Amino acid sequence: MIIIRAIAFLLHFTLVPVALGRLITYKSKDSQHHSPIVTYILGMAGALGIFYILNCGFYLYQNVTMITELVKGGFHRLCITYSVIVILLVALWIYLEIKNKTAVKSYFKNWFDDVIKSFKEDKLHIVYAIIFIALLFFQMYMSLSYEINEWSYDDYEYVATSLDDINTDMITNVNFVTGEAPFTTSKRVAQAWTTYVAYLSVVSSFEVTTVCHTILPVILLAVAYGIYYYIARFLFDKSDNRIIFMILLEAVFIMGNFSHYSPTFRLLCALWQGKAVLSAIFIPFMICYMVRAFSIELSSRVTATIAILSVGAASLAGVSMGLVSLAVVGIFIMMAVYNRKIYGIRYLVAGLAGPAVQGIMFVLSELLLTSQWS
Amino acid sequence: MEWFNFIAGITINFWKDRYIFALLFAAALVMILLIEKEKIKRYTFLWFTGIVLLFIYNPLTWFIANRFFDHSAFEQYYMRFFSVIPVMIIVAYGLTLVIAKFTGARKLVGLAAALGIILLFGRLVYAEDWFTKAENRNKVPQDVITICDIFADYEGDKIRIMAPQDIAVYLRQMDSRFSMPYAREPLPQEAFELTNPNPDTLAVSDYCATNDVDYVVTFAGDEVLPAYLDNGYELYGRTTNYAILKVPVGWVLKEYKDNANLQGLCYTMYNKNDGTLIVIDGGHVENAKYGKITPGLREAIEAYGGKVDAWIITHYHKDHVDAFNEIYADPQGIDIKEIYVSPLDSEVFYSKAQEWDDVDSFDRFMELTADADNINPVKRDDVLEFSDGLKITFLNSYDDSIKDVEDIPNNASLVFKMETKNRSALFCADCHSRVMAERLIDDYGDDLKADILQCGHHGNNSMPEDTGFYEKVSPSIAIFDMPEEMLTSPEYTAGALAAYLQKTDCKIVWFNDKPNGFAFY
Predict the structure, then answer these.
(1) Do B89 and A374 touch (CB under 8 A)?
(2) Across the interface, which of B16, B131, B139 has its CB nearest the CB of A209?
(3) Same domain for B447 and B481?
(4) Could you say which of A127, A249, A374 has the minimum Cβ distance to residue B89?
(5) How far is A85 from chain B (nearest CA, A)?
(6) CA dihedral B361, B367, B370, B371 (to 10 degrees)
(7) How far is CA B172 from the centre of its chain?
(8) Residues 93-112 of B with CB under 8 A from A
(9) Cis? peptide before B186, omega within 30° of 0
(10) Were both Cys, which of A281, A289, B456, B513 would link to B428 (CB 3.0–4.6 Å)?
(11) How far is A151 from chain B (nearest CA, A)?
(12) Is residue B137 part of a domain?
């Protein structure tokens, strides 16, 4: 049973993002969407986005109907609903892939052929690759076996909130210090990452602490380097330069602990926190993905993917509204200068979809807070 | 200037220990500008960074953010804007652009040189003293895991516990049943007593009484643990570094704020062992109503089981008796066994009453209790005894010996000493004048000594300081039954008395949102 649950957990970082990503990019003509990494991240954002919307719905229902007594059951209903939706989407993907047998095979084969070809061209590639893989495994080992041996209030608040979701069967409705309910803070309600972590804990049957502190940092580290490789492909044409970039990136991360606000701290020490996932994974990806989207002809499908990406990113942390907006507006201004004209307003609007959803949740939770239990 | 200082501050905070890394970042931006030929790539990482920096280092952003962000964590929130800048990607990108100029083995040498620069400029995260090998798969201190194991079979929904901060922040990560009164700054002073080699265990007991805490986690060292064990705490379990102790169970005295937001007197004394409940006065009528924010007396009595074994009415002013009148008239299930009063009859009260004396409250009490058979007039030196050694000795009540004293409605208040083995409290109610202070000193002398003093007449125009009354009582805690704004207002004399008592190392207590608790055992 433990193995089955562990596999179920892993599927949420393997099969589910791939399936959802393929559904999002299905039949897309955009060259970006042929990248496995883009597919994966869009799938991950899609899954998080679905969870976020459901989370908002169940939370609002829970708190609107909670007049004099606690309304329980929201968390397990959210988990079941999300699981059913994800299973249906994966089934749909499998059906589509079966119909179009060659798609997946050719999809990965092209990428793999490129890598082999580059190794054959220059033997030093192997040296670079070994250095890169060794450093990556080193970081993953450190993420798995080591810990930050100083207390963090954020850590406490997030983990306790996730655990309370499970044990009270309510969504973000418990005071993380006293354990009393009802208790609502808008910045917790406006994100879904803590609830998603609780969901992962239920799926896997691992303790929330184990999911957060031990498992997620390793998995998300691999995802983060996948994103960085996608950026490397954007920046450098030659594959050896890409690997050199990756090695140097690993080195600056390992050696870059200039403060607790450094990207190093986020990536190598606290990657399971929603805001770390946002800043280490989603924002770098959004910058690169959106710039590339802005630099070519506008497309409705890309508009939709940007919106999905934005909603997925907004689900991660209460600061998403500010950070995603800053990134999106910054890219829009920059690309307006690049194109010498106002260009791609629809991408701007799509990019602000996540912050808009989060903003609505902030406002609604504030309204609920003022009217509830009065 | 304020903006400049703020911006300078966050920049220093962001780069903190490694300004040289900032130099590397700046150099990488220059390399991108000089070497990168493709406009789109330059824009993506150079000009995008420029736009974000412009946003961050902009007085307008600072001004607007100031309006929206929580001020207690403003700097922290503002600094999060930095996380939109892909600092590490830019550094790696800049260095790779230089290395990409080489070919073959030279490229490898270039990579080695770049790694050398990073080593030289950087700071290894894994070498930090706070980055250590995990003790368990949960990555929380092993002591926390052991504490959770100790409570594994605990049969209750809530484990009310207080712990040193470095334990407190992990407990609820492992078990939702833990309920704590604090976890982050500002920590109460009592939290430090848990690790203090010379702890004030009574202060911790009072904190536990105030916050309904049943267990405390303390250092298990040779100095800390014995101090707690010697003061009635019971060892519940141990970890390598900490001890889990059961808070001594006995009587808990609670002082409630007045829901009329005025001065008033409302106390409960509850025995956790057998459920005996004593109520003292009750305050204004608002205390008898169901409070939306602060639970009133009615809710407190209901929480204690709804049965009042003894209700002591010190005197008949509305800030003392109106809540009682309301509950007595409409008990809603509250059962009052015995009522103890000062035997001030109507004739005397009316003959002495001034315009400020609350005749209506007195009349209502008399009317309500006219046929009651549980009214017990109290005489001086009467003693009430309760379970677990609680003794109440009355030192003042109305009798002929004080009939000519000024302000009879107040000075006829029941004054009594409440004591258990470990502690005593002297209640003066509204008894306040010089003559009463001297009379108490003459009649009771050293017997007035008490650990806690409920200041007469709420501390306003109370027992004069030059009577030697406070030296006789010599309290370590003085309670002023009033809101803070009254205590600190120059319009009232309570502040001066509080200042006088503070000079004798006496702790001053006034109304708190949560009832102030005091442990007696």
Answers:
(1) no
(2) B139
(3) yes
(4) A249
(5) 29
(6) -130
(7) 19
(8) 93, 95-96, 99-100, 104-105, 107-108, 111
(9) yes
(10) B456
(11) 6
(12) no
**B132: in domain:** no
Closest-CA distance of chain A to residue B16, Å: 6
Residue A228 Cα to chain centre, angstroms: 14
pLDDT category, B293, cuts 50, 70, 90? low
pLDDT tens-digit readout, B437-450 = 999 999 999 999 99
CA atoms of A366 and A159, how far apart (whole Å): 23
Q: Is the pLDDT of residue A319 over 90?
A: yes
Which pLDDT belongs to residue A31?
Answer: 79
**pLDDT at site B186:** 82
Give the residue from B515, B507, B368, B344 showing the smallest Cα distance to B430: B344
Dist CA B217 CA B238 (whole Å): 9
Residue pair B41/A234 in contact (Cβ under 8 Å)? The answer is yes
The C-alpha angle B158, B161, B165, rounded to 5 degrees, equals 130
Quickly tell me which residue has 């004739």 as its tokens: B347
Q: Which residue of B has its CA nearest to A212?
A: B138
- Number of domains observed in the structure of chain A: 1
Between CA B376 and CA B343 the distance in angstroms is 9
By percentage, how much of chain A surpasses pLDDT 70? 96
* Residues B7-46: tens digit of each pLDDT: 999 999 999 868 889 999 999 999 999 999 999 999 999 9
Over residues B104-153, the pLDDT tens digits come to 899 999 999 999 999 998 999 999 999 999 999 999 999 999 999 999 99
Question: Does residue B136 form part of some domain?
Answer: no
Q: Are B391 and B508 members of one domain? A: yes
Does residue B495 have a pLDDT over 60?
yes
Task: Work out the widest C-alpha separation in chain A, in whole angstroms.
Answer: 72
| pLDDT reported for residue B348 | 79
* B231 shares its domain with B308: no
The mean of the pLDDT values for chain B is: 93
Q: How long, in residues, is chain A?
A: 374
Q: Which two tokens stand for residue A215?
A: 């498992």
Residue B373 scores a pLDDT above 80: yes
Full domain range(s) for residue B28: 2-127
C-alpha span between B134 and A212 (Å, rounded): 14
Predicted ipTM beyond 0.85: yes
- Mean pLDDT (whole number) for B226-255: 95
Give me the count of residues in chain B: 521
Rounded to a whole number of angstroms, the CA Rg of chain A reads 21
Last residue of a domain, one of B127, B156, B189: B127
Tell the residue number behind the tokens 């499970």, with chain if given: A166
Mark whether B69 and B177 lie in a shared domain.
no
d(Cα B11, Cα B32) in Å, to the nearest integer?
22
What residues contact B457, with CB distance under 8 A and at least 6 apart?
B410, B428, B430, B431, B432
**CB–CB contact A279 B83 (8 Å):** yes
pTM of the model: 0.89
Q: 3-state DSSP call for residue B68?
A: helix
- For the cut 80, the answer to whether the pLDDT of residue B66 exceeds it is yes
Beta bridge partners of B237: B244
* Token representation of residue A341: 């004209």
pLDDT at A373: 52
